[in-house]
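[step 3/7] fold_predict: job queued, chain A
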Amino acid sequence: MPYGYYPFYYGPNQFYYSGGLFYQQNNDQYEVVTPPVGAEVPNLPSEANQVTINGIDYYEYKGVYYTQKENADGKTVYIVAGKDGVLNTTEGSVDTHNIGDIINQLPEGCREVTIKNEKYFVSPDDVYYEEVVDGTNITYRVIGKLF
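[step 4/7] structure written:
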């Protein structure tokens, strides 16, 4: 394990956290695992970026979203609020794709727009997509965000 790791339990499972990565023991070794949503950690990775979604500040690092709060001891902690680029909020699931990501289906509620005679799609949370056609396969590339 990296120096300074933070051990914690989430439910019955023990995890270890260090520098934005979560680990679990598997036999005689430790494996990087997907963090459990709701887990509380004492700090953020230094490369985490602050993003505002639906008026709420989050911190994102490698597709994991954190919120900041004070624990019972008055210390600042960070709670895993989403993973794999998906953030679940009180308003439902929010699409948090990054620029350049390719997706197979547009998020619900997208509308078609024309910019400089080109067709694009915009999600309700102002993420812009372009259609990518490869033979008979159609996907969508994230090309911009307005936050």
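[step 5/7] annotate
The longest strand covers residues 137-145.
The two ends are 37 Å apart (CA to CA).
exit 0
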